[in-house]
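Field reference: sequence -> structure
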Amino acid sequence: MELKEAVLTALGQHRQAVLYTVGAGVSLLGLWLGYKYVLKPKKLTQVGVVSQLILHPLKSGKGLQIATAECLRMGLKYGELRDRQWMVVTEDGHMVTGRQEPRLVLVLMTADGGNICLNAPNMEEIKVPLHQPNNNIIDCRVFGADIQGRDCGDEISEWLTCYLASGKTVRMVHYEPQMKARKCAKNEEPFPSDEEVVYPDAAAVMLLSEASVQDLNTRLDKDVTVPQFRPSIVVSDCEAFSEDSWHDIQIGSVRMKRVMACGRCIFTTVDPETGVISRKEPLDTLKRSQFSCLPEGPLID
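Structure field:
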């Protein structure tokens, strides 16, 4: 049977969105539980409270703070938007992320009446239809894995090319349900063989605690913020790094199982407010600190 869709309510009623866990594990969550597993009774212990839900419709784009979301097998959904199901690509289909173009983190995608809207500093808002079934399907590459996307049109391409001003033409693609997704297991051994994602680096959902970021800031000269780590679910009312000990997690009626710790890469050094990449902090401090056992590598975006 397919995984049941469920509604995850957090901000408006976040005191009711209590986080429970059983067992032990680490901080990157993959939604790989089946319907049978969801119904299996478990003894739960409250470990925290969901304080934020952050949707990133555009891979490497600006996070959208949302009050509620549907938690689906391949990530969060809010209205017509799904997490990381749009992506900027080169003309030959290779992904373009904030690692190469850090100013992508300032591009905000929203949806309005059947259109997707893009906004960025010093750019006029652009709107195009959400569904453009007559546009070409582009063969894309995400970390060496093949995946497809529907081209979002020349207007979006010109807008993004102008904004990034890299001298290279870029396009934007949109994943559609009938397209073949990527197998997580091809890139990350801990994932079950049938687990799939679209454009995220590794997993459909990532969880991070506010306390962990606050603890990291005690080691830094300049504070970093939660959006710098690009989580989907942010948790409060817990100890720093306690999420590393959570194995099975339940939020409302939604159950998730951790898969692996989220390795950190150069993307963490991009300031989400300015789009400037330092290539130093907080990555240098993460490598030196007690939690440097977490593997270096791609995060969720």
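Note: Residues 230 and 268 are 9 Å apart (CA to CA).
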